Amino acid sequence: MFPEIKSTLQEKAMDMYEIFLKMYGERSLKPTRRDAMTELIMTILSHRTTAANEKLAFTRMWDYYGSWEAIRDGDTAKLTELIAPSNYPEVKAPYIKATLAKIIEERGEANIDFLENLPVDEGLRWLRSLTGVGIKTASLVLLFNFSKAIMPVDTHVHRVSLRTGLIPPRTSADKAHMLLLKILPNEPHILFNFHVTCLRHGQRICTWNAPKCNQCPINHLCDYYHQVYKS
Ligand code: SF4
Fold it and tell me: Which atom of ligand 1 sits closest to the CA of residue 202?
């Protein structure tokens, strides 16, 4: 599926991974408690939104409509108002309605569990054909709900990958998805734990405006550290 890439990057990624596991712990990859349909819509609501506001927006929407079909058929302005705790509700409301309309039309119901039986590439392609579903959302649903070998690249994973040099400078988050898959093992458990621990590292140590490089246990592996502190 993915072409060969330099082993040095693979070694760096695995060295980082081992250190991250010691720092942040290793978790088992279990399907999330939410069904895949809910996960998909909640992930759309989560973009640029806190977890608390994502949940509030979903709860307000579900309490009012009570079914996916009612959301599909409801008034866009009303849906926008209900999901307002989430950022960009005026963009997300039509996305959610269009996504639901396509799924129900194509599958006969609001259910995407068939993705479990599709190869990862096909599942990714299908999910990305839905309105408002990008590679991060699609990857998240496939990994978290169906334990597929794919890894979502959120803002923290993206930043840590750029600074350490796992991906070239100025690589977009979208492109980072495929580049990181080339250097990480094709193993859902590892991809899940790399995602979770790298995200924690970005939240706690490799923060956006003030990375704590001198306290960072992977600084010997990091391009940014060598450029800033060793040159
Ligand atoms: S050394 Fe600094 S820039 Fe590199 S990963 Fe650690 S905190 Fe981030």
Answer: 8
